[in-house]
Amino acid sequence: MIMAQDQTDTSASDPDAGRPQHRIWSPGPSAGQANVGDRERWLSVIGGGAVAAYGLKRGGLGGAVLLALGGGLVYRGYTGHCPGYAALGMNTATDAPAPPEAYFERGIHVDESVTIDRRPWDLYAYWKDFENLPRFMDHLQEVKKIDDRRSHWVAKAPAGTSVEWDAEIINDEPNALIAWRSLGGASVDNAGSVRFIPGAAGEGTHVRVVLDYIPPAGRVGAAVAKLFGEEPSRQVRDDLQRFKELMERGG
User: Fold this and answer.
1) What structural domains does the chain harbor?
2) How does pLDDT run across 152-171, given as a tens digit for each residue?
3) What is the pTM of this model?
């Protein structure tokens, strides 16, 4: 479920105007019209190969299931066609950002919080500089500022791969809220927000992070990520604990 309460309507403008469009896949023969994006296809092939290899190593019935799952992901990536997407009328082979209903239909929702013994404006200022995020978000490799509202993100993915996207700030309430979403062409469509809520009687700040994202292979992709130890709720929970430790020791 996307965070409508933390977002502003940006449909009237085109944030991607003038941005170069990258096509990184040379498609193989397709069993149907391509409806899977380029980066998603690469991830399907790489992740599927890793799952299949794990299935072969494991053996037995469970290994056979993983082998079949991995083979399906490899085929999906090679052909660029996903029958499940076709049945739902979905198409990620475009550079347009995911519509809000896509988050509801096939997205993953994370909602985690922590109380930190620092003032809201200290925490807000640190988080607002997105280049600080990889210091405590273990799944992020790098965030680079493009301008006052846009940034480029690189995150770890299963099997030693990475995913990239550009994001924009869509809501900014100084010392209280930052909300962002990915732009068109993202490897992983995502939207998130962080709230900084003063504690009662000056007892620290309650930091709440809400994240919605669409895994590259839908809910199957989330299962693959979990298999490789990258369960999203646990990730965000651990990230917030590192943020707490960093800020309480004067980060």
Assistant:
1) 38-88 (no CATH), 96-248 (3.30.530.20)
2) 999 887 667 777 889 999 99
3) 0.61
